[in-house]
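Appendix B, Record 12. Input sequence as logged:
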Amino acid sequence: MHAESVTGGLSTADREETLLQIVRELTVELHPGAGQPLHLTLDSSLDRDLGLNSLARMELLNRLERAFGLSLSEQVLATAESPRDLLLYLAAAKTAGPVVATVVAAPIQAEDAADLAPPTAETLVAVLAHHVRCHPDRVHLIFEPTADESHPLTYGELDEGARRLAAGLQRHNLDPGETVAIMLPTGHDYFFAFFAILLAGGIPVPLYPPARPTQIEEHLRRHRGILRNAGARILITVDEVKTVAALLKAQVETLAVVETVAQLNGRVEACIPMPVQTGDIAFIQYTSGSTGDPKGVVLTHANLLANIRAMGRVTEVTPADVFVSWLPLYHDMGLIGAWLGSLYFGCRLIVLPPLAFLARPERWLWAIHQHRGTLSASPNFGYDFCCRRLRDEVLEGLDLGSWRLAFNGAEPVSPATIIDFARRFAAYGFAPTAAAPVYGLAESSVGLAFPPLHRGPVIDRVRRAALVEAGRAEPAPEDDAHVLRFVSCGRPLPGHQIRIVDEAGRELPDRRQGRLQFKGPSATGGYFRNPEKTRALFQGDWLDTGDLAYSADGEVFLTSRVKDIVIQGGRNIHPHELEEAVGNLTGVRRGCVAVFASPDPDTGTERLIVLVESRQRDEAALRELRVRIVNLAVDLLGLPPDEVVLGPPGTVLKTSSGKIRRAACREMFEQGTIGRPGRSLWLQLVRLTLAGAGPQLRRLARRGGDRLYAAYCWLLFGLLGLPLGLLVFLLPSVMVRWRAVRQGLRLIVFLSGTRMTVHGLDHLSADQPLILVANHASYLDSLILAAILPVPVRFVAKAELANRFLVRTLLARLETLLVERFDAAKGVEDARRIAEFAAAGAWPLFFAEGTLQRMTGLLPFQMGAFVVAAEAGVPVVPVTIRGTRSKLRGDSWFPRPGPVSVWFSPPIMPIGSDWSGAVRLRDAVRAEILRHCGEPDLAGQYTSLTQMDLPRPVR
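Logged structural output:
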């Protein structure tokens, strides 16, 4: 009896038996000839015992819904580990509802076609600010987490959520330019987190969350290297993966804060947006590759906006377009192509979780139908998935007539898939001219080559022997049955250039296969903290993509990855061709074939290896399948593979975007680990905990060392600082007092292990009146300057410091100049008094920011010092202090080790004695300090945080 006829109202025992029967039926179908699964129980592992991967789980989910008349969440695909888990989901499931989502947001009006893009915006932050300023209530995103509801998000709500989270990040002392990892699923929180990091001055590092607990070890092993390379201190994640994140924290020494968005959220008004420049890093995109040597592609705001504008130009995007996407947001195609592109042009973006597509690919197409989507994208496997998986009954009434561009990229585009998808969905209104194979890579932000609009795909047929043996892409005659087919990816984006070169770097003519190189405004400047890989990326001004291609009539045809080419007998074998052909054989899991080269340990020559996933278990069936694969290879390539390896489902490793990880498969083959069962979750946790013991011990040792250093510094200051204070009270003259203070402070600096570097001290002339103006980063600044300066200076300080007797007496003994901040008349008198001191040869020293803060950044300068300089006609020496903020932050009494640098710039003369002359002097001095301090410019981000500014002089 087939289980599909079962309905609700079953007893617990009947429900369990029905569930096991459905699992048993599916397992037998997946593994023909293997007989009944042994010891199938409610606690059997869906992965290890039954071999049910993501696609098999999808089929199981569909059968359970039909059998029980219920609607199950897509999370079942990710979290269920056994039939017992499935029972729990069934108990909590709702009665099945409609597939098509209901639109909540108002439909797009005709006037919305007006251009909403901000053409002068130089950063992503400026793009969002433009939309918030012009139309905060316009719907930007619509989420479809379930089958019967949609959740719109406006530009204003996106900005508010991002600011709330940014305030929380700043509460955790996020420094400008510091990386923050995002390990979140598709949802509101992801979009909030990305912009929150930018607003707080950080750099987002997108990561993907683990799909299932059984994959935890592989997941952590891959992300461990990324987090170490990024130097991330903060990780934003969700409750469900905090256990995983805690293990990451144990293995990554820099990682200190692991919190959810809810835990980090602060008050909107507490957010202080950091200034962002066009050349600043917008985010780091880690590309698929070696787990031990991750490559983080550095993309600036200028790179991203250049790429988005170029793609929008060739695709003629307007705000009337609707982009429908299920693509993961940790991948550039989903993050930049779908979201940031829609953000820039003011398009509406319909967002489906990736699991929703895997579980029910029809939801992607129905979302296009329901929202009248005009743009959408997928890797090749998504289109192939729809062709193979969707039954006609779930497509009844579907209308894809609004879909004007169906981008196909991120992995090799299959000619068969292009043809099959257009043929299958033509009856549902899909126009063949909508198919748009594109080419891009993270090193070019996302897009590099696009086809002309309204043309449809171009498939080139070339002679196999000419390309394989000589690298010539000669057109094949129609009667040639042994051809290679390649899909055109179009032409370079405006402002970008592509060339094909040989191994010596010489440009090749049309229809000659070589290495594809490019350059343009979207190109990355290199890989984050990886100079060796960065050097290998650049060939002069050109970037090497690592892809093989040829050009014809100005269009680009990708043939393979350079590193994936297998060379045998002087012939270049393209893996993807054999992979696609083997994937069509009965008994082989389509899309789960890896062809790669592996050196022969005896001869050192390359061997051709074919790794295939199969659900077959019967030995006779496997032998027959192996023979068919060998025969197919001989027919295609003219030679047999050296070895055919048949593995269970899940054997062939893939990237987050669905690409075959051939290098990782080769490593697994050479280590002999193919087909080994996955480790149980508890064993993985034990192994990972033990692996994290070393970093944890180092972290504890570092923290202990920091505490010991802080205690030592305070002990040192107590032992030497108190006698110094006593000497200040006892010594007879100010010159002697200053010498004692200078020597004592230099001794403290030396004994604390602080490496101090001083530049430009020769710009100070003892016989010239000067005013010194410094930035103010730490309580240590006065002590550092007192230890450096060769002659006594007159520190200018706020009058409130004199409220305590001991402090007032100490300042008076060092002839500190106190100024009144709140009494205007007294302030003017103080200004004139300081001007007289300056003209007489004393050196007043101002901390022109007027206050200090713990956050990195140069605050606006108060006018007092510059009014005094203009009034007295005395030049100003800009003094830049760098490193003290890291040693002792504002609002903290915990000193840390670290170097300190001080720059004394050449004196700047005031031009004019009036207010405008003082303003010009202030701007010149501040620009000089900003040039050396290595911190962002916070001018314009703050409004009068304090009232320390001296009033304008009264004439």
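The first helix runs from residue 12 to 30.
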